[in-house]
Write a structure and sequence with these properties.
714 residues, alpha+beta, Alpha-Beta Plaits, 4 domains, eight-stranded antiparallel β-sheet, four-stranded antiparallel β-sheet, 20 helices
């Protein structure tokens, strides 16, 4: 009761405190690549860091709220700004190289940053052991002339408009070295020396990637996606209450607790919530309920086997913990890879996914099982019918479905899809977005519907020729424009297009623009391939360690099937493939293996209690394992589909293709776990049986990491 009250009181504050990304509140993001102004010079980390700091100071002068500026790698700076009124002016100001100058008392420039030697400034100690800055210039005669002329006068070291220090020239400097003394602390002296070194190596900035989102479009996306997510979450909670009764009530409470903790974690680590991040949050609710479903289905099995309610709860929790851990670790692998290789909104998606997995285990395993034991200990709730319908009745063997027998038909269906997909790839390939083929994309949302010909006419009136123009959206009011060439951000062409539509349709026009140069497109493509490969390899290794090589091979083939099926679908319908699509693929990989691992865990458990010596016995074992986990698979996929379909139908248009990929991948993951993963394992194990003269597998067979299993079952 106390926890519920705390959640109710703090949830509104937690929601309002979450930092929103640009795609939700508007603004722009730019990735700059730095190059030395002076040819042949090398970029130093100090110069890059000081350039980023100079950009920060320029932005602060505008009064922009919560600007985000940081360095990436050896020569890149990423800038995120929200709520900027004059974007073109701000971009021009940011792009200008930081200028270091030394001004005389009359304000005239006496020395420039390029007059100083690279890395020629350092902190030393003066005769009183105070911090001082020693600076070496390239031209000794120039320094001698300036110091002679300005002897006993004040000079000013400036970075752009910022005054760094105002020393007085106390002597003629004829050795090319000046020393700046004062009462500044050591840290300030180090900062000034770093700035002078940066000024000696001025950097010019080139835009490699930029994204611009209108404030009204961001707000609309947030509103639509929250509505869709709320609907999906309510459907999940209602389903759990109706289907699982008392355990469903516990699941609903733990899911609300999970959502509350996830919001608190976002605030604690100052993570940015993006549009894909909200999708991950909502999908995470559907995936988090999986832990409860696994536990509750196992509870039903134990009740049907004749155990008492208390014993069934204890045994169900013990046997389900291993499946839950294995299933979540494999999804965690995909999330970590996404975080390492992603950027911007994709990294926000990964953060949400990783936090979701960790909190899901804490709340929907330990908290849920603890509350279940607590309720069972209460006499008023010891009637087993509160936990399972007709718990004393087990389904007869004859009513169980023969999955192995129906495999041939499913394989034919899969082969037909594969041939159609490969044919589509060969004939029309993949419709890559600007993320992977470079160029500029502009998406506009209008206050009313528009015809394709009218949209093309408005764009032609601006004097531009895009590679493609499409009209979509629920009301036919979304115009997507693609250019194969990279628009010059300073040309204002994107603004001219938006202004042309605003002239016809009024001030309600809002939009989003993305520009990716060829180098970044290649980098995105390489990272996408690496991300998919690393996720697959990481999962393969984990399954091999936790199970064995036959399980691992079957798992990898299943992953490849699920990924290719989604790729084939997007190719056949010529749907755009972009970075959110890759995030969807990685999530599908994690979810698909999640379902597969639960089935594999049941197969492994059944092997540990049986010795299989014939193929018929092996078929029976696989069929039993699939039937034992079928309700869990169906209920989990249904809960996740509540979330993904809600986002697909009612969420923001910006993530509709992401949601479509997720929905298709979820279906693919469910049937491939049953008809590909388990059947391939059956085939590989049958070959082993035959090769070993049908000496038997199971029971005496030791799987890797059994020590961990015994710990989990304690």
């Amino acid at each position: 009761m106390t926890v519920s009250l705390v959640i109710a009181l703090t949830m509104p504050q937690a929601l309002s405190s979450v930092k929103l990304g640009l795609d939700l509140k508007g603004g722009f993001e730019i990735l700059y690549e730095a190059h030395p102004v002076v040819e042949g010079s090398q970029i130093t980390q100090d110069a890059l860091r000081q350039t980023a700091k100079s950009l920060q100071e320029r932005v602060d002068a505008l009064g922009t709220s919560e600007p985000e500026i940081w360095t990436e790698g050896s020569n890149r700076i990423r800038v995120r700004l929200a709520g900027v009124d004059n974007e073109e002016k701000v971009r021009a100001m940011l792009k200008k190289p930081a200028e270091l100058s030394v001004l005389g008392p009359d304000g005239e420039v006496e020395l420039r940053g390029t007059d100083f030697k690279e890395s020629g400034a350092m902190v030393v100690r003066d005769e009183l052991f105070r911090p001082a800055i020693q600076v070496e210039v390239k031209d000794k005669d120039l320094l001698k002339e300036v110091s002679s002329r300005l002897l006993n006068q004040s000079i000013s070291f400036n970075l752009d408009e910022r005054v760094l220090t105002n020393p007085v020239v106390l002597a003629v400097m004829d050795n090319g070295i000046m020393q700046i003394t004062g009462d500044f602390p050591y840290d300030e002296a180090v900062e000034i020396a770093d700035i002078i070194n940066m000024g000696a190596l001025p950097l010019k900035l080139t835009e490699k990637y930029n994204q611009s989102v209108g404030a009204s479009l961001g707000y609309r996306s947030l509103e639509q996606t929250l509505w869709a997510g709320g609907l999906g979450a309510v459907l999940i909670l209602l389903f759990m209450l109706v289907f699982y009764r008392i355990p469903g009530l516990i699941a609903s409470f733990t899911l609300i607790t999970y959502s509350w903790l996830l919001l608190l974690c976002f605030n604690l680590v100052q993570a940015t919530m993006t549009l894909p991040g909200i999708a991950a949050f909502i999908l995470g609710i559907g995936m988090a309920v999986d832990a409860n479903i696994i536990t509750y289905e196992r509870l039903k099995e134990e009740l049907r086997s004749g155990k008492s309610l208390l014993s069934a709860v204890r045994e169900g929790a013990k046997h389900s913990s291993r499946s839950i851990l294995d299933a979540n670790v494999t999804t965690l692998v995909a999330g970590i890879v996404m975080f390492m290789l992603g950027s911007g909104a994709i990294k926000g998606f990964a953060v949400t996914l990783i936090l979701s997995i960790v909190l899901s285990v804490l709340t929907n395993v330990y908290l849920s099982q603890g509350l279940l034991r607590l309720l069972v200990s209460a006499r008023a709730l010891r009637d087993a019918r509160w936990y399972a319908r007709k718990p004393e009745v087990a389904p007869p063997p004859s009513s169980r479905f023969d999955f192995v027998r129906s495999t041939r038909a499913i394989m034919i269906f899969t082969a037909v899809l594969g041939i159609a997909g490969l044919t589509s790839l060969g004939l029309q390939g993949i419709n890559y977005g600007v993320d992977f083929k470079a160029g500029t994309s502009i998406d506009l949302v209008l206050p009313s519907s528009i015809e394709q010909t009218e949209a093309e006419r408005v764009i032609a009136g601006v004097g531009l020729e895009p590679a493609a123009v499409t009209v979509g959206g629920e009301s036919g009011n979304r115009v997507s424009i693609r250019f194969d060439t990279v628009m010059d951000p300073e040309s204002g062409e994107a603004d001219r297009i938006e202004a042309a539509f605003a002239e016809v349709y009024g001030a309600g026009v809002s939009g989003e623009a993305n520009t990716v140069d060829p180098e970044m497109a290649r980098e995105f493509a390489v990272k996408a391939i690496i991300a998919v490969l690393l996720s697959t390899l990481g999962i393969w290794f984990y399954v091999w360690v936790r199970f064995d090589r036959r399980f691992a091979l079957a798992a990898v083939v299943t992953i490849v099937h699920d990924v290719l099926l989604v790729v084939f679908l997007f190719s056949m319908f010529h749907l755009e493939v972009n970075l959110p699509f890759i995030a969807a693929l990685l999530t599908i990989i994690g979810y698909s293996i999640n379902d597969t691992v639960v089935i594999f865990d049941r197969i492994r458990e059944n092997l540990q209690t049986n010795v299989i010596r014939t193929r018929a016995e092996l078929r029976t074992l696989v069929n039993d394992s699939l039937n034992q986990t079928l309700i869990r698979s169906l209920n989990t996929i249904l809960c996740v589909l509540f979330a993904s379909v809600a986002i697909l139908l009612w969420g923001s248009e910006s993530i509709r293709l992401f949601s479509l990929a997720m929905t298709v991948g979820l279906f693919a993951g469910m049937y491939s776990s049953i008809y590909i993963a388990s059947q391939l394992w059956l085939y590989l194990t049958a070959r082993k049986l035959r090769a070993e003269g049908y000496s038997g597998v199971g029971k005496q067979e030791q799987f890797p990491m059994r020590q961990l299993d015994s710990v989990l079952e304690e």
